[in-house]
Write a structure and sequence with these properties.
- This protein is of the alpha/beta class and about 240 residues long.
- Helix content is about 40%, strand content about 15%.
- It has helices spanning about 5-20, 40-45, 65-70, 90-95, 100-120, 135-140, 145-155, 180-185, 215-225, and strands at about 20-25, 30, 75-85, 125-130, 165-170, 190-195, 200-210, 230-235.
- The protein is globular and about 50 Å long.
- The mean pLDDT is about 90.
- The chain binds zinc ion (2 copies).
Length: about 240
């Protein structure tokens, strides 16, 4: 199939997805043009109204949390659309290992809503930078979920994304089961940034923030490349 045929086919699929009744991805109710029915979307766990602005963990008055005061992360702000809980966690896992473009589109749409709500008073961003995946893992999976989200989010909010600015130069072992100190050690030297970001305001894009160690390490590298404002934007935050 030629590129133009593929593009026409994609447009037809998008049209059909928007206009034909489908089933809610979670409960099977009939919906048109959305992935989830209104009820299921309402049921997704949101973050509490008051959170630490820097790391998005709940605090009583929305003040900076003790951990961020003691050892501030290299990013200035965290924006998260949801708390990482059932059933969103299983949607994210499904999408991570078997790329589902309708799920990724839904994630990007939710992050765009979140960006619109929380960015009204701050200066515009210059770039979105997806969390890079090591090339060995990229070859294994065939796609990088964070990049897929960043590309779609970029179209929605009109901020350019840079797919090749940051690289994962070390294929670090899985972070699962490691405590915070071990996670930080595990990630040292994992990333590089190949462009000059002097004076730029950027958002690092990832699907989930767990301890925040990967985003912190990437932010450190991006800060060294000259960025003056670094935000971490994720779909969901582990509480
Ligand atoms: Zn539903
Ligand atoms: Zn914090």
């Amino acid at each position: 199939m030629s590129n133009s045929q593929q593009s026409t086919l994609n447009k037809c699929i998008n049209f059909l997805q928007l206009h034909l009744p489908q089933s809610c991805f979670l409960c099977g109710t009939r919906v048109t043009g959305t992935l989830l029915c209104a009820g299921c979307e309402d049921d997704l766990a949101r973050l509490p109204a008051t959170c630490c602005p820097q790391c998005a963990l709940p605090t009583s008055q929305g003040e900076i949390c003790g951990a961020c005061l003691k050892k501030p992360p290299a990013f200035n702000r965290t924006r998260s659309a949801f708390s990482y809980a059932f059933p969103l966690d299983s949607l994210v896992q499904q999408c991570k290992y078997a790329h589902a473009s309708n799920l990724t589109e839904f994630f990007a749409a939710q992050m765009a809503i979140q960006a619109g709500q929380s960015n009204t008073q701050s200066e515009p961003l210059d770039y979105l930078l997806p969390m890079p995946l090591h090339h060995a893992r990229l070859a294994q999976r065939g796609f990088n979920q964070a990049a897929e989200i960043a590309r779609r989010l970029s179209t929605r909010i009109g901020v350019p994304w840079l797919p090749d600015a940051c690289h994962r130069v070390r294929n670090t072992p899985s972070q699962a089961g490691l405590d915070l100190k071990a996670r930080q050690r595990n990630l040292r030297g994992a990333f590089s940034c190949s462009i000059d970001l002097s004076g730029k305001r950027v958002a690092l894009i990832d699907d989930v923030m767990t301890s925040g160690s990967s985003l912190d390490e990437l932010a450190r590298v991006v800060r060294k490349a000259g960025a003056v404002e670094i935000q971490a934007w994720v779909l969901a935050r582990t509480l």
